[in-house]
Specification:
Length: about 280
C-alpha cells in the first residue's frame, strides 16, 4: 500500500506522454511526471519515489527529496502566507501548509520554524504543525542516563533550549551548560543527563561522567598539537577563557588535562600546558 508523505518502492508499469505510471499490488496509476523520470528508466524497473498530493489533490510521485517526511520534525522556511495559512518550502513543487490553528504564533514570510509533518485525518492532506509539544510524548520512556541521542533544537527559553529527542520526546539543555554555538534548527548528537521524576529529560551536549573524559581529552590534545605544543591554559585559568578557547566547562577541562597528564602526554605548568614529546 502506498504511503503518502513517505518514500515508496514501486514498479514502472507503463510509459505515457506525460510520464511513467507506477504501482504495487494495490495501486496501478500513480504518475511520475516526465521531468522526474530517471535517465534510462524502463517499464519493469523499480524506483524509490516520494508520494504526496499535487495542486489538484491527486496522489503523485517524485524523485525529489523533501526536507521532512510524514511523522517527522523539520526546520522549514515560510514561502508564502495567505488567508488559509502559512506555506512552507519543503523541497517539493507544492508547498506544505501550516493552518492558522497549528501556528504557535503568526508565521511570517521568509522566516524559519520547526514544524511536524503529518497526515490530517479529516482532509486526508499532508499538513504541518508548529505546535510541536502535542506531537511529543515523554510517557513510557526507554531512555537511560548517559545514552547518546539525536536532537533537533526547537526553541530558546529563559532556562535554555528545548530540544526534540529522537523525533519522539521533549528535552531541555540548560543555558549555563551550553559551551558551543547552537541555534534553532540544529540537528546534533547529545546525551541524556537525567530523567526527572516528572518525566522531563535533561540533555547534555557533552558525554556524561567518565564517558566525557576521553573525547574531551582528545579534543584538548588535538588543539594543543595544532597550536604547536603549547596553550596558555591551565587549571587556574578562568572558566570564561576556557570556554572561549575550547567550548567546554572548566570542570571538564580539568578532567581532560588530568587524564592527559596521567597518560604522560602533557606537562602542566604555571603558564600553561605543554605537549610532551614521544
Amino acid at each position: 500500500m502506498i504511503q503518502l508523505g513517505n518514500f515508496n518502492t514501486l514498479e514502472i508499469l507503463r510509459e505515457t506522454s506525460v510520464g511513467m505510471f507506477l504501482g504495487d499490488e494495490d495501486v496501478d496509476d500513480l504518475l511520475l511526471p516526465t521531468k522526474y523520470v530517471p535517465e534510462n528508466a524502463q517499464v519493469g524497473d523499480t524506483l524509490e519515489v516520494f508520494c504526496y498530493l499535487d495542486h489538484e489533490e491527486r496522489p503523485i510521485a517524485t524523485t525529489l527529496k523533501p526536507y521532512v517526511k510524514r511523522n517527522e520534525f523539520g526546520f522549514l522556511r515560510v514561502a508564502e502566507v495567505n488567508e488559509i495559512g502559512a506555506f512552507m518550502d519543503w523541497g517539493l513543487e507544492k508547498h506544505l501548509l501550516v493552518p492558522f490553528r497549528e501556528q504557535r504564533e503568526k508565521m511570517r514570510d521568509g522566516h524559519w520554524y520547526v514544524v511536524y509533518c503529518y497526515l490530517d485525518e479529516k482532509s486526508f492532506r499532508l499538513v504541518a504543525s508548529a505546535r510541536i509539544k502535542k506531537h511529543l510524548n515523554n510517557n513510557g520512556l526507554s531512555l537511560q542516563p548517559k545514552e547518546e541521542v539525536q536532537i533537533l533544537v526547537a526553541r530558546s527559553t529563559d532556562l535554555g533550549f528545548e530540544v526534540i529527542v529522537n523525533e519522539k520526546h521533549l528535552g531541555l539543555i540548560y543555558r549555563d551548560e551550553v559551551y558551543q554555538p547552537i541555534q534553532i534548527g540544529d540537528r546534533l548528537n547529545a546525551y541524556v543527563k537525567k530523567i526527572r521524576s516528572d518525566k522531563k529529560i535533561d540533555i547534555s551536549l557533552k558525554p556524561i561522567g567518565h564517558l566525557q573524559i576521553e573525547p574531551s581529552a582528545a579534543q584538548v590534545y588535538s588543539m594543543l598539537s595544532e597550536a604547536g605544543g603549547y596553550m596558555a591554559l591551565h587549571d587556574k585559568s578562568s572558566p570564561e577563557d576556557i570556554q572561549e578557547a575550547l567550548q567546554m566547562s572548566k570542570k571538564t577541562f580539568k578532567k581532560a588535562i588530568g587524564t592527559l597528564y596521567k597518560a604522560r602526554k602533557i606537562d602542566i605548568k604555571k603558564d600553561g600546558i605543554y605537549q610532551l614529546k614521544k
